[in-house]
Structure formats: structure tokens, C-alpha cells
Amino acid sequence: MLDMRGFDISLRCETTWTDMGDDSQIHEISGNPHSKSLDDMEEPFIYIEDDKGGHCPYGYSFSDYSGGGCNEFFRDYGRKCNKVLRRKYRESVQQSIRNFQGRIDQLKDRGLLDSTLVIFTSDHGELLGEYGGLVSHGRPPCPELVYVPTVFIHPSIKPKMEKSIIRHVDIYPTICGMMKGSRSPRNTDGMNIFEKQPKVGMSFREGGYFKSRGFLNHFNYIGHSIWDERGGYVFHKHGKYRMMAFLLYKIIKKHPEFIYMINNNKRDPIGKRLVKYKLALHHMTNPEIKYGNPVITKEQAKKIISLYLETKDKKDERLRISVRDTKRKL
Ligand SMILES: [Zn+2]
């Protein structure tokens, strides 16, 4: 979408990647688009803004938090009551909503609101001490992380709330479907949600502890999950006891991922503390976990995931071959 011809295009990260500006990783993977402000955009335009939203350190800007990054933030807030962490998270999200409303006002002031499709969404939710004291959004895939609200604003859309699901891959085909004269994109896993609605979505979390593709990869986190509007299933790939032993080691070594849990559970008696650790390990290692009351069965879920992984492997292989062939021809 960021290379559509005839459009003024901007990718803005004012509150994220604060010290990088146009050189952020998100700019790099999107082909280095400009970073113009909304007021400078000329019609027709595609304007994408990455806002800090509910990212840690909650309630502070990246440069404002006196302790520095997220690890320090969770270390500090692990010593406080969980309610304080939740309050800070709410502050962070509310700030993001205010920023978004500011953009809506800018469009209104320029008389563009009625001719602009506005979308507000998030890439993930956040864990705030659930499942024994887990925080942030790395893993495991769970309802708190995978379900995020998405809002479409346009005069042609009737205001209503839908409980059905939409996946991130559906956003691009949906935008194309709403644009006059734009064809549905090929080579996409998504669909135009105003024509058809997806029944399930998937979220895969892989890696996180080692960059290695060799032996150490056997200890990386791998959780594949599938979701519908009522719940979902998570399947952990590595053996339960191997991962449990490894994560226990990480807890003892005070890996930043568990610092909140360690500090926040410190005041509890040892028995209660152990119950919380067990709960966290269960959610990160159990081979199969069910959340909510999914419409699809576990067997259907397994089948969809393995079919997806199979076609993905074939696609990846085809891509590798074509890249190799192109390189050879060059
Ligand atoms: Zn994010």
C-alpha cells in the first residue's frame, strides 16, 4: 500500500522510534517512505501513523521515563501494587486516543473527514500481570494479546459494533475494496470484510530467547494459536518438561521477561508464590491450551494450522528457488 502510484504517502512515528525518525526499522521494512505530518499531506494520500499506544513504559514517553527502557519500568512497577501498573497502562492508552482524536480534528479542519477512510487499530494487546504475573506482549498468545479493537470511520459505514473477528491481513484488501477504481489485491491471505468475513484468525509466536537456528532453537518459545470470536487454542511445539526446566532457569537467572513476576510476587508467602509460577509456566509450556469457548473444535484448529504451515513452507521454498534463480541469471 505504501507504494501506490499517484498518492502522497507518509509513515509517521512521532511517539515511537523517537530517536530514529525516518530511519526506524518500520521505515526500513516498508521501503523507506517519507515522514510528513498530516497537515502537509496533499490529496489523495495514504497516511500511516505508528503511535506508542499501550507500549511500556506505560504513561511515560520513551524518552521521559527516568529509569529508561521497559526492563527498568517493569522492575520498578513490580515493586508496586498491580493496580498502579493497570492505571499507568490506562493512562498510556488514553494518551493515544487523545492523539488520534487530534488527527480527526485536523482532517475536520481541512474539510477532509467526509472523504477520508480512517482506521484505528493495534498490532497486539498487553499482559498486565495475568497468568501468575506475566507482563508485556511477547508470549504466550492469549486473549489479552490477540484480540484488539479495530475501528473504521467513513460516512458510507453505518455506526455499529460488530463482535465478529477481523484479522490484520484483512485490512489491506478491505481498504482496496473501499477505494474507487482499485482492484482487489492478489497474493494476499486476507479478504475484504465488507464482502466476506473470516471465521478464524491465527497468531504465531516464535523465538525470543536465542537467535540460533541450530540446537538452541529447541529451547526457543514456539506457540501457534488459532482464534474465533469466542475463544481459541494454543499449541506449544516443544516438550513441556524441557521448556519448563528452561524457563525455570530463566526465572532463577532473573531474565527481564520475569522480573515483574519476581518482584511483584515477593510479598506473597512461598506457597502462593509457587502457585503463581506454576500458572505462568503452564500457560507458556502446556502442549495444548484452550481459552474461552471457541466455535471450532480442537481437531479443526490443528488441521487448519498444519495446512497453513504446509502451504507456507511450499510458498517459502518457491520464493527461495526464484530468488536463487534470479541471482544466478544476474
Ligand atoms: Zn507493538
Q: Which percent bin holds the helix content?
A: 25-40%
Order of helices and strands: EHEHHEEEHEHEEEHHHEH
Radius of gyration: 22 Å
Mean pLDDT: 92
The beta-strand count equals 10
Secondary-structure class: alpha+beta
Question: How would you describe what is shown here?
Answer:
- This protein is of the alpha+beta class and 330 residues long.
- Helix content is 38%, strand content 14%.
- The chain is built from nine helices and ten strands.
- The chain has a four-stranded antiparallel beta sheet, sandwiched between helices. A two-stranded parallel ribbon has the order 1-2. A two-stranded antiparallel sheet has the order 3-6.
- Strand 1, helix 1 (25-29) and strand 2 form a beta-alpha-beta unit.
- Helix 2 packs parallel to helix 7 and helix 6 (240-252) crosses helix 8 (270-285).
- It is globular.
- The mean pLDDT is 92.
- The structure holds zinc ion.
- Zinc ion is lined by residues 123-124.
Describe the SSE topology.
Layout: E1 8-12, H1 25-29, E2 45-49, H2 70-77, H3 82-109, E3 118-120, E4 127-130, E5 134-136, H4 143-146, E6 151-153, H5 168-178, E7 201-206, E8 222-228, E9 231-236, H6 240-252, H7 256-265, H8 270-285, E10 288-292, H9 298-329
Parallel strand pairs: 1-2
Antiparallel strand pairs: 3-6, 4-5, 7-8, 8-9, 9-10
Helix pairs in contact: 2-7, 6-8
